[in-house]
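All the exercises in this workshop are built on plain-text protein records. Sequence and backbone structure share a record, each on its own labelled line. The question running through the whole workshop is how a given chain folds. The record below serves as our worked example for the rest of this section.
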Amino acid sequence: MRLHPAILFAGLFAFFVGVFLLMGTPYTTRLLVEATAFALIGLGLNIQFGYGGLFNFGILGFVMLGGVAAVTVSFPVNDAFWQSDGPLMLGRAAAAAAAGGFIVWLARKSSRLGITGGWRAALVGLAWFAAYVAYRSQIDPAVAYIESTSGWIGGLGLHPVLSWIAGGILCAGLSYFIGKITLGLRTDYLAIATIGIAEILRSFVKNLDWLTRGTLTVSPVPWPVPRAADFQAAGADTTMSLILARGSFLAVVVAFLIFAFILMQRAYEGPWGRMMRAIRDNHIAAGSMGKDVKGRQLEMFMLGSALMGVGGAILVSFVQVLDPGGYQPIDYTFLIWVALIVGGAGNNWGAVFGTLFIVAVYQLSAPASFVIFRWISAWSTDIGWGAIPDVDSRSQQMRVFVLGVVITLALRFAPKGFIPEKVRR
């Protein structure tokens, strides 16, 4: 089944109009902001998988890192930290890490001095051990001191939009090192490796109390636009102030999405995009023609991760809370993969449509299930069968069931997605 993209987006627009009529303007604007932020993440996965065939199942880790960047850059400055010895102690830890890295680099270059084979491996291992001991000897006292005095380091107090950009840069930089290690793996091993890396990052962030406050959460994260309270102070009523605040936030996020979409669309239709598709379809043939296959794959991995980081930073800024314990793979990795499969991999329009549609369905399935379960519970009570227990928790669990039904129907009637990739011959 294939419909014209204009018809699909018109239907999606009508769907959101229906949500507006049923749920109201505040709920609809919140849903649109979150869906647009997820669309950026979907575009990132489309670059990695749709353009390059890279199976990244570590989306959760990059989204979380984007949220950490949003807090670190935009949260107000913690004067208690900067007026203490914490910065000096962290500087010593950074110097120890740099010195350890230099020692490891020297050990890896020892072959130039004639040290090879097992002796070189032993020397590199000893260098890593020395670097680890030197770093831990400085970072452990620094962490204990910061947590006992100022609690955590706080933020930099910069504009939230800068924190979104910083989230993309952070994820792109980290993905460079991850890609260097994992992109040589076969597709299934790459998927397993990225899952493991995402879980490592999640555990890492949850336990960095001195940097992210861990499970204590950070709030309120600043907005890039005036909040509802600011509009109320200017004289607007409660409903209108909420609409103006979320509408302004939505306008900024849509601007980011449009910029990223135009950039990726132009790249996809140009020589770079044709080269990426050639590497995806037959990397051996592309390599035999002189293309740097791993280098180009690394580019796609970094670009996609950068968009995931921006999307993660936007989500944290919008909800104004960083809660590392609230990041679950079902809400990010699985959701984005379903959206890309339903929308159509290899097509930016399909990635955007699929993400907007799936996020809306995922968010609406819980309240819709709650209403249905309450009606069934009242009916079963009237006829003597008793009420349905735990309606709230069952309604939340129905979101996974609804996603399963949607992806099953999509694979049955549109196996390449509703807006599949255009193959030019």
About this structure: The radius of gyration is 24 Å.
